[in-house]
Amino acid sequence: MNSPYDGDRGRGAGGDPNGPVPPTPPLPADQDPYVQDAYRNDPHRTQDPTAQDPVTEALYDRAAHPPPPPGQAPGQPTQPLYQQPAAGRHAPDPQLWASPPPPEPQGPSRNLPYGDAAATTQFVGVDDLITQAAQERPEPDAFAHLYRDQQHYEPQHPPAAPGPEGVPPQSAPEPEPAPVAAAGKPSGGRASGLLKSSAVMAAGTMVSRLTGFVRSALIVAALGGAVLGDSWQVAYQLPTMIFILTIGGGLNSVFVPQLVRAMKEDDDGGEAYANRLLTLVIVVLGVLTVLAVVAAPLLVKLVSFDISRDPAANEVAVAFTRYCVPTIFFMGLHVVMGQILNARGRFGAMMWTPVLNNIVMIATFGLFIWVYGTAKTSHIGVTTIPDEGIRLLGIGTLLGLVVQALAMIPYLRDADFKLRLRFDWRGHGLGKAAKLAKWTVLFVLANQAGVLVVTQLSTWAGNTADQQGHPGTGFISYASAQLIWNMPQAIITVSVMAALLPRLARSAHDGDAGAVRDDMSQGLRTSAVAIVPISFGFLSLGIPLCTLVYGSSGAGVPMGYMLMAFGVGLIPFSVQYVVLRAFYAYEDTRTPFYNTVIVAAVNAAASALCFLVLPARWAVVGMAASYGLAYIIGVGVAWQRLSKRMDGDLDTAHVVRTYARLAGASIPATIISGAAVYGIMQSLGSGVLGSLAALVVGAAALLAVFYVAARKMRIEELNALVGMVRSKLGR
Hints:
The chain has helices spanning about 55-60, 125-135, 190-225, 225-265, 270-295, 295-305, 305-310, 310-325, 325-345, 350-370, 375-380, 385-405, 410-415, 430-435, 440-465, 475-510, 515-550, 555-565, 570-585, 590-615, 615-645, 650-685, 690-710, 715-730. With about 725 residues, it is mainly alpha-helical. It is globular, with a radius of gyration of 39 Å.
């Protein structure tokens, strides 16, 4: 049994070519190295003289006579191998059937097997195990490093400067220790801070959108939907177009990442770089503002040739433009200061300060309506609006942007950022950052080119329709309807992708195409649950919604038709947004540029066709439908390119099936809702009461029919959404 195994010695895979090896003859017991010392050191030999007797051997208690340790003579007292601990004061009473359990020991009470260290081993009972299992331990976030730019910025203090000779250097005061969280309220750490920042940003965006919606309603009520409203809309949109075309796009996409990098790497926390960037923006926008004020007549002609050839309309539009274009300067200041605060973990100011602008403008147009009345009752136009009214609206618009920009300064001081003008721009990376903005600037140019064509054609068609007795069919109606149409995209799709974008970027960086596909598919299907029924809902609810909001201007019904024309185009518009995020995750900005060129070209061509073919009162409605058509083609091209990049693995069947089922559930809901809206408005009219009743009943019918149809189709995304809502409500 103890002899080595020699059966395969010297054999290969095909056997030993020399033949079998003869077995080794057994050695005598006294010469065998494996057995000759087996019984030499018998520890029981001296204590067990009768060990050869099997009966006595069986009755001999070896546990009472343990062998001596090595090096100790037999008969000397030995230390027992195992020692039972003494009974403590909590030992169970054998006379009680159920004695109370003793408390858990504070440390190990016995030797541990398998080499475990007693100092690092913890003994727990069942109660502790249950308690620990019930406690939720957040797992470490695998994508936490993607949010490092969003953490609270702590300014870096420079090293202590040496004092005069004989005087010790003055060191910076040590920061006060952070307050300890109260017992029972553990700090959420990085995850809770990120959620808090996201909640603040989401709340600010929501309030900003709602106040902007009220502002737009008051503008249309004060100026109407005819030539005066179009003149104001042209002047109000010009600063935004100029800012985006010049430095706005590059500022957000290139300069801001450079700003964040400087704040991390520079010894002063990036304060000098930020001041250089702020100074550069002030100089460029200051020069640009002066040139825009001087060139206001040319800018009006560039945006709307039809308004510029009408002397009265051109005079009003130029006056509005000269009040509005200085907002370029304050718009740029707000963006730069807001991004400086974002890099230091202060997110609220960037989202909440636009609310101040909306409040100032709401007060301005409310005052205008209080003095002159609404456009429906005052009949104010480009020939009858007083100069005082133009100054009131112009100064109020400029004041809103001034308040929005200056409100950022207290937040900067609270973040320990000191504003200083710095003109040492050379050799600090600003030129390199400007070169990186090439594709972004081209992207913006392509997008604004399409907007410029639509602005020219819509103002022309609106003026023609107004002369024919059909007001409210021009550019201001187009922009107001588009504002309502874009709200679900800004609130739903953007929020969903904001949560998925870090994962998408991480997966693309790691080359995990499967994870990119899954994240994009999840973003598309999750947002579609709300986007698809809302887009169909615009078909049935567009008219009562616009007559309720814009009815005081007399242009509610034409705007309702435009909102209906925009309606279903929200679906490809939302899909396009998600697909382009995948290209950005792969750090590909060239493909989105080419895709934007295609969308802008299709939109411009289709809008021109509508202008030439359709009557003037329906031309802008056709342009609204062209917007969705352009994004349908753009999504097809972008999807094909992304599929080619990812070897055809985009979960296309799953996504298309989800959208088809949601559309199938939305169609009967839209028909029933539209019938209810039509019946109510025929009975009650298009006033406030009729519009409100039609909107409430139509929306309820739309949601009820869609929910029942979707549950019958077993749309898993809707079921998951309903389950999440029920869990939040505790049902």
